[in-house]
Backbone:
C-alpha cells in the first residue's frame, strides 16, 4: 500500500486546508502490526504517543497493543484495569470473538466503546482515552482512561463572594459539567457536546433545562454556533465574539461567569449555558443589561442589604461614566452651577497649573488606566511598589508640584473606585467615559446630555438572542421589576422572566 | 456603510451649528465677582462701577479686592475694569448689587436693564440701596469673617429676614416683577455704614421705598416689621411690649407664624381696606413677676400685643400715605387681581386714591406656649 512507502505523497498525510487529516486513505486491517503501522504513520513525529504491546501469559497468540498519550491518561488505570487483566487472564482463548470477549469479560473499565472509525479513534486518543488494538480484529476498543492533571476547584478571583459557594469553574469541561449537575439534579438538565476549532478540536457543551428553555432562543443559538469556522478555540471568548448580537457594541450581550452557582441560577431562569473546554469562563445567553449589576451574593444575603448593593452598583456605573465629563463641563462652561465657595476653591487650586483642565483630566485618567493595567499583569510581590508610586508620586507629588490640581485627583479617584465596583461592565464604562469627556469638553453639559441620550438609544436598540437588552428595566410591572434595581425576597419571586423562559411559574411555589 | 457614516457625521456636525451661546473659558482665567456697587460718576461721567473680586490666593489676608471704573454706560465700565483686573470678570457668582441712594433717586430702571441683560449674572441677585453713603464704600468695608462683602451682605439679608424682620430680601426678578405690576410699588433693603471709633461697618437699615423706579424715601428698621406684617411676608422676629410702667418691665414674644388677609369694601362709593392678621407667638422672655403664662394675665398680654400691633401698622400706613404717596402694600394690586373691572376705574389716579385710602387693621394674636418652662424664677422666698 502506498501509505507504507517511505516517500509518501504529502497531500495524503498532512491535513487539508480545513485542517482535517485526510483519513480516507487509511482503513484498519485484521493484522496487528499493520494497524500499529497505520497509527504510527498518523501520529508521526509525536513523541507523546505511547504504544504498549503485550500478550496474554497463557495464550501467547493473543497480542494486543494499547495506544495512549503520555500525560493525558491515568497511568494506574491503564496498568491495573487494561494491561494487567489481559496479560494475566488464564481463561481467554484466541478466537474470532477475542475482541468482544476482552470487552465484555476482561476489561475493568467503565466506559468502553468499539469502533472502526479511525477519526473517532484518533479524537479519543487525543482526548486521553486509550485505544486497544487486538490482533485479528479490525475494530478498536476505546477505553476511557482520562486522567490528566488539572487545577483544583478554587474560588474565582474575579467573582469573589462573601457568602455562598466558593467553588469556581476549572479548565476541564467535564469537571465543569459536574459542577453544574451537582446543583441541578434533574434529568431535564441537558448537556449537548459539540466540537469547535478545526485544528484545536475543542469540546464545547450547550447546557439547558429542557422544560424551561425557549426553543426559539435555543435554535438561534445553534444556528449561530453552526457558523463558527475557526481553527482554534482556546477560550470561550472566541465563541462570544462570533455569536454575539450587535458585534460592534461596547456592551456584552453574552454573559460570562466563573461561578457554577450563578450558572445554575441562570439555567433555572430558562437561560442557556455554553461551556468550552480549556476555559473556566462559562457563557450564558440571553444576557441582559441588568445582569451586569447582579452578583450571586445578592441572592444569598438579606434582600434589603442586597438591594442596597444593587442600587450602589447601578449608581456607580453612572457616576464612573459621568463624573469627569460633568466636572469638565461645569468648570469650563457652566461655572454658575458650581456652589460659590467650591468655585473659589477650584480657582485657588487651579492657579498655576499649566494645562487646561481637559488635558489634566485625560492625563490623570490615562495614568490611572496604565497603573490598573500594570497592576493586573504584574507579579503580586511588586504590587507594593506600584501602589507607592501611584499614591505618592502621581497623587501627592503632582499636586504639590502644581502639575495637577487637587480637584482632578478627587475626580479621578472617584471615577476609579466607582469603576472598579462593576467589573463586568468595566470595558464599556471606560470607553463611554472618554467619549463623554470629549463631548463635554467641546460643548459642555449639552454634549454630555447628548451622550447620555445616545447611550440610552443604543441600549434600547440592542438585543441579546431576540430578547431586548433592557427588558424588565423599562417595565412598570412589579413582577418584572422584582430583580432589577432591588432584589425582591424569594417568596415574592414567583415567576421567571417571561421573555426568556416558556414556563414562567417557578415550580413548588405556584401552589401558594 | 459609507452612507450611514456620512449621516452620522452630519448629525455630529449639527451639534456645533445648533448650539447657541457657548464658549470654553478655564475657570481660573477669570475673576469671580462677589458683589458690585453702582454709584453716580464724577465730573459728568454717568456711572462709577465698583466690583469686588474674590482673591484667588489661598494665603491672602483679605478675601477680596475692589476695582473701579467710570463710564457713561455700565457695560463699558464692566469692560474697562479689565484694565485693572487683567482678567475677565465673571458675574455668575455675584450675589449682591449695591446701588447708591443718589443714583436710585434718579431711577433704577437702567441699572436693572443691564443686570437682566447681562449674559452671566443671575436674576436672583440681591439688590441693596446704600443709604447716605457711596455704594462702593459698603463694598470696601473690612470683611467680618474673611468672607467677601458681597457674600456677607447676602447672608446678612437672608438671616435678617428670617429671624429679625428688620429688612426684607429684594431679588432682581422680584423687583422687576413689582415694577411691572399694576398698583404695586417696590421696596428694596437699605444699608448704611456706621462709623465707629477705629472701624466702621455696614448695617442693614430698613427699606428704601420706590415710586415707579425712583427712590422716594426710607422706612425705619423697626417699622419694617409692620410692613412685613401687612404684606404677609413676615417669617419671624420678635415683638416686645412694656407691661408695667412702674417696674419698667417688658415681655418679649417670638413670632412663629403669621397669616394676613387683605380685603377691600366699597361703601357709599368710598373704597376702604380691611387688614386682618392672625399671628402665632411664643413668649420668649418674661422678666417680670406678672404671671403671663396663666389667665387672666395671659389674656391681658394678648390684647396689649394686639393693640400695639394694630397701632403700629396703622401708623406705618399713615406715614407711607402722607410721606411717600406710593402703594408699597399692594392694595391696588389686590383690586387688580380680584376685580380687574374695578381696577380700570381706579387705575388712572391710584396714587391719589391711595393717599386718602381708609384702612382698618385688626390683629389677632395666639399665644402658643411660653418656652420650655412655665415657671417663673423665684427670688428670696
Residues:
Amino acid at each position: 500500500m502506498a501509505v507504507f512507502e517511505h516517500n509518501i505523497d504529502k497531500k495524503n498525510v498532512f491535513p487539508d486546508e480545513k485542517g482535517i487529516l485526510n483519513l480516507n486513505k487509511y482503513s484498519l486491517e485484521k493484522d496487528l502490526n499493520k494497524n500499529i503501522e497505520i497509527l504510527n504513520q498518523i501520529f508521526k513525529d509525536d513523541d507523546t504517543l505511547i504504544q504498549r504491546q503485550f500478550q496474554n501469559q497463557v495464550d501467547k497468540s493473543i497480542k494486543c497493543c494499547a495506544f495512549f498519550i503520555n500525560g493525558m491518561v491515568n497511568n494506574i488505570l491503564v496498568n491495573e484495569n487494561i494491561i494487567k487483566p489481559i496479560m494475566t487472564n488464564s481463561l481467554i482463548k484466541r478466537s474470532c470473538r477475542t475482541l468482544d470477549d476482552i470487552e465484555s469479560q476482561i476489561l475493568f473499565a467503565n466506559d468502553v466503546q468499539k469502533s472502526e472509525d479511525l477519526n473517532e479513534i484518533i479524537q479519543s486518543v487525543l482526548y486521553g482515552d486509550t485505544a486497544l488494538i487486538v490482533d485479528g480484529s479490525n475494530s478498536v476498543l476505546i477505553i476511557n482512561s482520562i486522567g490528566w492533571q488539572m487545577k483544583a476547584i478554587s474560588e474565582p478571583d474575579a467573582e469573589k463572594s462573601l457568602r455562598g459557594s466558593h467553588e469556581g469553574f476549572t479548565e476541564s469541561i467535564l469537571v465543569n459539567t459536574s459542577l453544574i449537575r451537582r446543583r441541578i439534579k434533574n434529568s431535564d438538565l441537558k448537556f449537548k457536546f459539540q466540537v469547535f476549532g478545526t485544528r484545536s478540536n475543542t469540546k464545547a457543551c450547550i447546557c439547558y433545562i429542557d422544560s424551561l428553555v425557549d426553543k426559539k432562543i435555543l435554535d438561534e443559538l445553534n444556528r449561530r454556533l453552526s457558523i463558527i469556522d475557526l481553527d482554534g478555540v482556546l477560550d470561550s471568548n472566541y465563541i462570544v465574539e462570533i455569536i454575539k448580537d450587535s458585534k460592534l457594541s461596547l456592551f456584552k450581550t453574552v454573559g460570562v461567569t466563573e461561578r457554577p452557582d450563578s450558572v445554575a441560577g441562570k439555567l433555572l431562569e430558562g437561560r442557556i449555558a455554553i461551556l468550552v473546554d480549556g476555559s473556566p469562563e462559562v457563557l450564558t445567553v440571553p444576557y441582559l443589561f441588568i445582569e451586569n449589576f447582579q452578583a450571586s451574593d445578592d441572592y444569598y444575603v438579606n434582600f434589603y442589604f442586597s438591594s442596597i448593593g444593587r442600587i450602589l452598583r447601578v449608581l456607580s456605573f453612572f457616576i464612573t461614566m459621568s463624573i469627569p465629563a460633568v466636572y469638565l463641563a461645569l468648570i469650563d462652561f457652566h461655572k454658575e452651577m458650581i456652589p460659590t465657595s467650591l468655585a473659589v476653591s477650584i480657582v485657588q487650586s487651579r492657579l498655576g497649573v499649566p494645562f487646561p483642565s481637559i488635558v489634566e483630566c485625560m492625563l490623570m485618567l490615562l495614568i490611572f488606566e496604565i497603573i490598573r493595567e500594570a497592576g493586573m499583569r504584574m507579579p503580586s510581590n511588586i504590587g507594593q511598589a506600584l501602589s507607592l508610586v501611584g499614591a505618592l508620586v502621581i497623587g501627592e507629588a503632582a499636586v504639590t508640584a502644581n502639575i495637577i490640581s487637587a480637584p482632578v485627583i478627587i475626580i479621578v479617584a472617584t471615577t476609579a473606585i466607582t469603576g472598579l465596583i462593576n467589573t463586568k461592565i468595566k470595558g464599556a464604562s471606560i470607553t463611554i467615559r472618554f467619549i463623554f469627556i470629549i463631548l463635554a469638553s467641546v460643548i459642555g453639559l449639552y454634549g454630555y446630555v447628548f451622550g447620555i441620550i445616545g447611550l440610552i438609544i443604543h441600549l434600547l436598540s440592542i438585543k441579546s438572542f431576540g430578547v431586548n437588552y433592557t427588558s424588565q428595566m423599562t417595565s412598570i410591572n412589579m413582577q418584572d421589576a422584582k430583580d432589577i434595581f432591588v432584589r425582591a425576597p424569594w417568596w415574592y419571586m414567583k415567576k421567571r422572566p417571561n421573555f426568556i423562559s416558556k414556563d414562567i411559574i417557578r415550580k413548588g411555589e405556584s401552589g401558594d | 456603510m459609507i452612507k450611514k457614516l456620512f449621516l452620522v457625521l452630519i448629525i455630529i456636525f449639527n451639534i456645533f451649528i445648533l448650539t447657541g451661546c457657548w464658549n470654553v473659558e478655564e475657570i481660573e482665567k477669570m475673576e469671580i465677582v462677589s458683589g458690585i456697587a453702582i454709584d453716580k460718576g464724577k465730573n459728568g461721567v454717568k456711572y462709577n462701577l465698583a466690583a469686588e473680586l474674590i482673591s484667588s490666593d489661598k494665603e491672602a489676608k483679605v478675601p477680596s479686592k475692589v476695582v473701579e471704573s467710570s463710564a457713561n454706560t455700565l457695560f463699558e465700565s464692566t469692560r474697562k475694569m479689565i484694565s485693572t483686573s487683567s482678567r475677565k470678570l465673571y458675574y455668575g457668582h455675584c450675589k449682591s448689587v449695591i446701588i447708591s441712594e443718589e443714583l436710585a433717586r434718579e431711577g433704577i430702571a437702567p441699572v436693572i436693564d443691564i443686570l437682566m441683560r447681562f449674559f452671566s449674572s443671575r436674576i436672583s441677585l440681591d439688590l441693596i440701596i446704600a443709604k447716605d453713603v457711596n455704594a462702593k464704600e459698603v463694598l470696601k468695608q473690612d470683611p467680618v469673617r474673611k468672607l467677601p462683602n458681597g457674600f456677607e451682605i447676602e447672608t446678612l439679608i437672608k438671616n435678617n429676614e428670617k429671624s429679625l424682620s428688620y429688612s426684607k430680601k429684594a431679588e432682581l426678578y422680584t423687583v422687576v416683577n413689582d415694577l411691572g405690576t399694576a398698583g404695586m410699588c417696590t421696596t428694596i433693603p437699605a444699608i448704611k455704614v456706621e462709623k465707629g471709633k477705629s472701624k466702621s461697618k455696614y448695617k442693614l437699615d430698613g427699606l428704601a421705598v420706590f415710586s415707579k423706579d425712583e427712590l422716594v424715601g426710607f422706612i425705619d428698621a423697626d417699622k419694617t416689621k409692620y410692613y412685613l406684617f401687612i404684606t404677609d411676608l413676615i417669617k419671624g422676629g420678635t415683638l416686645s411690649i412694656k407691661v408695667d410702667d412702674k417696674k419698667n418691665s417688658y415681655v418679649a414674644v417670638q413670632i412663629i407664624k403669621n397669616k394676613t388677609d387683605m380685603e377691600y369694601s366699597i361703601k357709599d362709593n368710598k373704597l376702604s381696606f380691611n387688614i386682618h392678621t392672625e399671628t402665632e407667638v411664643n413668649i420668649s422672655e418674661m422678666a417680670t413677676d406678672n404671671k403671663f403664662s396663666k389667665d387672666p394675665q395671659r389674656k391681658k398680654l394678648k390684647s396689649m400685643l394686639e393693640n400695639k400691633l394694630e397701632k403700629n401698622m396703622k401708623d406705618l400706613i399713615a406715614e407711607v400715605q402722607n410721606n411717600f404717596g406710593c402703594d408699597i402694600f399692594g392694595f391696588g394690586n389686590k383690586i387688580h387681581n380680584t376685580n380687574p373691572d374695578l381696577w380700570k376705574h381706579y387705575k388712572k389716579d391710584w396714587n391719589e386714591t391711595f393717599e386718602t385710602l381708609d384702612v382698618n387693621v385688626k390683629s389677632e394674636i395666639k399665644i402658643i406656649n411660653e418656652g420650655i418652662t412655665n415657671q417663673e424664677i423665684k427670688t428670696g422666698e
Summary: Chain B touches chain A at residues 15-16, 19, 22-28, 30, 32, 34, 54, 56-58, 90, 92-93, 95, 120, 122, 151 (CB under 8 Å). Residues 222-381 of chain B form a domain with the GMP Synthetase; Chain A, domain 3 fold (CATH 3.30.300.210).
